[in-house]
Amino acid sequence: MTFPMDDFLWRALAAGLGVALAGGPVGAFVVWRRMSFFGGALAHAALLGVVLGLALGVAPGLGVAVVAVLAAVALVVLQGRFRVSDDSLLFVIAHGALAVGLVCVTFLEGVSVDLLAYLFGDILAVTEAELLWLWLAVLVVGGLLAVFWQPLLKISVHEELALADGVPVAAVNLAFMVMIALIVAAAMKVVGILLVASLPVIPATAASRFARTPEQMAGLAAILGCLSVGGGLFASFRLDTPAGPSIVVAALILFALGAAVPASRVPGN
To answer: What is the DSSP string of 187-208?
Structure first.
């Protein structure tokens, strides 16, 4: 029995798998470093990127990538100027950018803005141009991961020891934040601004229960992310449910199944 798929479904699957493959390893580092809030914070700033893209007549995803990277750079700069937690600085940057974006929407004349599509994703409407841009972001993230894998591991274990060992901590942290920013920009089209942090984080959290090494966790997170995308799109097609939220629900189901496995059957226990 064959399962016919239209071109838009193939594009949606390719987009989702790209985000899952790059988001899994990045999500593993997000979980290790307890930075889950960072992805969510960048998602708040994403709306300003959408407005910027529409105002300049470029792809909204490109605007989101630029704003997300600028937000990451701003965090690095402000960390040395304020004696407050990173969460506080993220709150200021993210909600400030969100407020500016909401205000700027009112100044867009002659431009129709479908906020629901940006809030919840519109993976089934991915165009070939958007798919090309998305995979370009995925390849950039993959290249950065290959270059910074070992330094990121050292920083994740102990930042002070990594600094003493000669690791350029500030540069590596900035590169990592740029990776998260690119994943956020790519995932916005897949699951939307409101759920953008869930696709990298939920599979990585589920993978942490079974993996013995960082490499295993990163690989398993990518696999679980791909399964979430495939399962979510299949459910959306069959049940006529929103594609983006369905992908996140599929990831949540995999997380719940992993949590239900008895501890004695988990590798390493």
So the answer is: HHHHH-TTTTTHHHHHHHHHHT
